[in-house]
Amino acid sequence: MDPLSLKKLNALRRERRAAVLLTDLGDGRDRVIREGDTVAGALGEAVARAFRSGRSATVEIDGRSFFLNVHLPAPRLVVIGAVHISQALAPMARIAGFDLTVIDPRTAFASPERFPDVTLHAEWPDEVLARAPLDAYTALAALTHDPKIDDPALLAALKAECFYIGALGSRKTHARRVERLLAAGASSEAIDRIEAPIGLDIGAASPAEIAVAVLGSVIAALRSRGLVAKEEAA
Predict the structure, then answer these.
(1) Number of structural domains, the chain?
(2) Lower Cβ count inside 10 Å, N or C end of the chain?
(3) Same structural domain, 40 and 135
(4) Of 13, 37, 71, which residue sits at a domain end?
């Protein structure tokens, strides 16, 4: 590997940004492609697939062989609310490979006894997120039903362009939430990214079923990053 490529990769890892190390297997030359960089033609399509899947692969493009070595930040799931849904979601998210954090200032809910082996913060979300900012490889699920707790976290997620943002509540509840977020300065386009009611529409009723629906939405959003925008532009 070119020392300059290694330097670029290490810098992107520290910034929690995704990259592909593209190596021409014919001459051994390599270069770093950051997610969002423009790469034309069939090679660009292969790079885009690699970013979405997270899988390294060899591809044949116009008679040339390339190895795409994918480097993605570990996906994170930040849950606002130490509720029953969160308790069910925690082990599922761990199995699916997500770093999970639960935030809830209500100490009666945010206790180690209820959330063993989980990164847990019994603090207000804005305090925690000031120390550990959200980013494009983080999903946020707001589950408390309390605007004082959920809304600041949702605003932070919109600003950070999290790959998934969801909020618990009915359509009527979400309509009131939209009014508050607009008043707080969020744009309509940004707010439209919030999935509410949260989770896949599978008829979930119990906390565990809702947790399955939420995780399904998070995984779908992670693996389709940028795909919808490209289809709309076509």
Answers:
(1) 2
(2) C
(3) no
(4) 71
Three-state SS for 88?
helix
Q: Distance between CA atoms of 190 and 161, rounded to whole angstroms?
A: 9
| pTM of this structure | 0.83
Token code pair at residue 97: 């490979």
Give the up-direction half-sphere exposure of residue 97: CA atoms within 13 A in the CB hemisphere: 10
Query: Is 232 a domain residue?
Result: no
Q: Which are the contacts of 139, defined by CB distance < 8 A and separation ≥ 6?
A: 75, 76, 77, 78, 98, 162, 163, 164, 165, 166, 218, 221, 222
> 162 and 80 in one domain?
yes
Q: Which of 42, 71, 100 is the last residue of a domain?
A: 71
